[in-house]
Every structure is written in C-alpha cells, then in structure tokens.
Amino acid sequence: MVFNSVVFLFCFLPLALLAYYLVPGRGKNVVLLVESLLFYCWTGVEYLPLIVCLIVFNYLWGLLTARTKAKLKGLLPAVAVLGIVNTGLACYLYFSSIQVLPAQSVSICGYLDPLSALFFSALFLKERLTAAQLVGALLILGGAAVAEGLERCVQRRRAEAPKQEDTGAPL
C-alpha cells in the first residue's frame, strides 16, 4: 500500500485513526502494532519475520534503556545502536525495493522521508514548523500529486489510443 493511494487515504488511514482513538489507555499501543503490521504486510508477508524481529529488538532495547535509568550520556550509545540498526535495515529495504518497484514508487518513498522528519519532529519533539518548512512540505506533496496525475493521464491516453496497423504505406 502506498501512502498516496486511495485505499490508504480513504480506507486504511481513517479506520486506523478511528480504532486508535476508540481504544483506551495502553491498548492504543496494541492497536498501533496491529495496524503497522497490517500496513507493512498489505502486499505480502515476505518481510513479516524481519519486521517482527525488529519490533522485538526495539522493544527489548527500550526496556533495557529504561531500566538503566542512565543520564543523557548513558543513553547516547543506546540511541546510536537503534539508529544504526533501524537506518541500516531501512536502507537495505529501500535499495532492495528499487529492483522490483517502479521508479515512481521509489521516488515517492524518497519524498516521504523529509515530510516524515518534519511531522515527527513537530509531533514528538514539539518543534515549531516554520512557514518555509510548511511551504516546502506542500511543494513536495503537490509535486508528487502532479507527477502521479500526469503518469495516470499518460497511461490512460496510451490505453485509449487506437493501435495503428502496419499497412505498409508510408506515413
């Protein structure tokens, strides 16, 4: 499932948000876990074992870090390990997907990287977004939407164009 698909925007996302806000307390974590697994396994389950291993690793590493109750200097190695493992895995999945996905889908993943950084920094770190960042985000989304629309338009025209038969006569 792609983030800009109709299925994601109008089916999965609204239902996921509704389920998240209907479930009370710590149950929200379980809802997020199930929704994440459903999202990532939408097109196939070949990466499910890897995703589950990563979830377990991150959870256990988080518990270990929380139990040490270390100061900021003690947390830096933990953050570094999580960053290296998660970033390394993400890079592996990204570059291996280039071989099987169309170029447009790969580029959309590249567009989502800075957008997610803005979104998560505002959501979790309480950073204020500047007007330039918001304009940049809108330009990225607008560019992706225009490219998607143009590609669909070209595909539709190709499908509707009558096939010319080779009559042997010059054009």
Describe this structure in words.
The chain is an all-alpha fold and 171 residues long. It has six helices and no strands. Helix 3 (48-68) runs antiparallel to helix 4 and helix 5 runs antiparallel to helix 6 (131-160). The mean pLDDT is 77.
Q: Cα distance, first to last residue?
A: 44 Å
Please report which band the strand proportion falls in: under 5%, 5-15%, 15-25%, 25-35%, 35-45% or over 45%: under 5%
Summarize the helix and strand pattern as letters: HHHHHH
- Computed CA radius of gyration, to the nearest angstrom: 22 Å
Individual helix count: 6
Average predicted local confidence, pLDDT: 77
- Tertiary shape: globular
Helix content: over 70%
Short key terms for the protein model shown above:
6 helices, mainly alpha, 171 residues, globular, 76% helix
SSE order and pairing:
Blueprint: H1 6-22, H2 27-40, H3 48-68, H4 72-97, H5 103-124, H6 131-160
Helix pairs in contact: 1-2, 3-4, 5-6
Brief overview:
Helices cover 76% and strands 0% of the residues.
